[in-house]
Amino acid sequence: MQVKFNVRQNGILRYLLVLLPSNLYTLQLTPSTDFSAATAMRFSRTSILALPLLAAAAQQPNPLDQVKATAQYYLGKVQSYIPHYNTFHAAEEAAAKFGGSNIDVLTIDNWQSVLKSSVKPASKGPVEWWVLLTGNKTCHNMCGNVNKAYNETALLFKVDPTAPNLAYINCDYQPILCNSWASGPAGLWIFEVGATPPTPIHIVPLNTTTVSVKTFTDLKLSKSWKEIPAYEGYFHPFDGPIAQFGLGLLLGWVVWVFSIVPSWVFMISISFLSRTFL
Questions:
Q1: Model pTM score
Q2: Secondary structure element (H or E) that encloses residue 274, with its range
Q3: How large a percentage of the chain has pLDDT more than 90?
């Protein structure tokens, strides 16, 4: 069935042509009685019925946009689990500075430079550094008392020229650094940093329930930390074999991955591997 339309009489139809592909209709130019150009258009019944389908298709959302939004959502979730190991908690840094301006916040990017920069040519012997390993989740919400006592001690040490240098690492925000040292909260690492190696480290365990300002002041006066054997293990941050070969950061990431991956993932992986080889 063909329908003939005069464009001059059916001006609206000219605009509907824009919505249709050119292969669905043909144009014929025929002279009219008033010597003007007339257009004869032949439409099939299928072409007319296709108009609502084309309009509905134009309103449908693009499937690629849905795929992109889904991918961005899951990528954001994955990134939220990856620790930003070169940052620290700004509020805790401000609290540490308020407690005592001699407290340095260590990250995986600055800990070596902070500790070593204290050694001057005029230094008489090694420089003593107290580094507190703390956290919240990594300390099972039990380090609040330790942090309070450490900050209050910093106020006392601030006016004492013989006091050690103070710093802390928050293992919640520095898990890679803590893993590379194979340690975690709550503990006090006392470094004797000299111009040349070795660098003795004495690790003092802290009781999170009984620690107080007196704990730290007594430790300074008695020097009882020197009675603890110096740590000489593989994970020594300066002198250990892992540090010597530059593998500390790599192992820190490996330990972090194993700590967050559920155990059932390893069980399934081992099952698949065993079936592959057997």
A1: 0.63
A2: helix 263-277
A3: 23
